Amino acid sequence: MTLSSRRLFSLSLAAGTLLALSGAAFAAETTPLFKIVTVKDEIVVGLSPQDVAALGGSDVTAIGKALKGKGEVTLWRYAVRKAADGALEQAPVARVSILGNDSLRVEPYTTPLKIIAPQ
After folding, report:
1. Average pLDDT over residues 21-45
2. Distance between CA atoms of residues 101 and 32, nearest Å
3. pLDDT tens, residue by residue, 96-107
4. pTM score
5. Distance between CA 48 and CA 62 in Å, rounded?
6. How many CA within 13 A on the CB side of residue 44?
7. SS3 sequence, the chain?
8. Could you tell me the maximum CA-CA distance found in the chain, to the nearest angstrom?
9. CA distances from 53 to 59, 96, 113 (A)
10. What is the rounded CA–CA span in Å between residue 66 and residue 60?
11. Do 62 and 98 touch, CB atoms closer than 8 A?
12. What is the pLDDT of residues 49-79, one digit of tens each?
């Protein structure tokens, strides 16, 4: 390997590492989405930063503990919509109250679509 090819390789490696780290930081800043599944229905909900603070976390365990302890939680309902540029995105629709129930299940929800944070 010549000196210039080593430099190019080192620069490429450094750039790739920076991109990976910035992608991980971006993923941490996105709104966490969950699917609430009941016997009759299922909906997708998301957590605002205020919801995360109130629940004490941003995972299914935090939602489960809040449902068990308080009996209900209020979250953002999410749905797919078209953005101004025509692309599909997951966006908050309305606040919904989820009531604790023995047959209720909370699952993490992933989407390839852009997630719009609640305002």
Report:
1. 73
2. 22
3. 999 998 889 999
4. 0.72
5. 14
6. 15
7. CCHHHHHHHHHHHHHHHHHHHHHHHHHHHCCCEEEEECCCCEEEEECCHHHHHHHCCCCHHHHHHHHHHHCEEEEEEEEEEECCCCCEEEEEEEEEEEECCCCCEEEECCCCCEECCCC
8. 66
9. 12, 17, 25
10. 10
11. no
12. 999 999 999 999 999 999 999 999 999 999 9
How far apart, in Å, are the Cα atoms of 37 and each of 45, 94, 114, 116?
A: 11, 18, 22, 22
Decide the pairing of beta strands 114-115 and 88-99. Answer: parallel
Place of tokens 């620069």: 11
Q: Which of 51, 50, 33 is nearest to 42 (CA)?
A: 33
- CA dist 5 and 10 (Å) reads 9
pLDDT digits (tens, 9 = 90+) for 80-93: 999 999 999 999 99
Position 38, amino acid: T
72: tokens are 């209900």
